[in-house]
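Students often ask why we bother encoding 3D structure as a string. The short answer is that it lets us treat folding as translation between two languages. Here is a chain of 115 residues written in the first language.
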Amino acid sequence: MTNMLASSLRVNGWNRSFKPDFVLIRQHAYSMVPGEDFRNLVIGLHFGGVPSSNSLFSIYNFCSKPWVFSQMIKLYHSLGPEQFPLNEQTFYPNHTQMVSASDITLHPHNTHKSP
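And here it is in the second language, the structure alphabet:
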């Protein structure tokens, strides 16, 4: 059984399907910018078995920066800090844990006007 990727393209009122022979991906598949999430296309290309210049598996994995950094930590441990220096980072499972009340230092400002 062969998986087939069929992309629909609307040309002059007609739907056209095609399967690319090869793809070159030159940008990130996912961005925080609205409308710039192309992970579904990467999955479709991978599902269809379309060859690419760079691994579709690695392109999909690069959609998550913490995932990439965790892979870099593995390299750091296997190669050592001399061969693979790495800046320390902290992982937070969600944004609410990034700032706690104990981390905030308040500096009161003098709001009284001088005479």
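Translate back mentally: Residues 65-79 form the longest helix (15 residues). Keep this in mind for the problem set.
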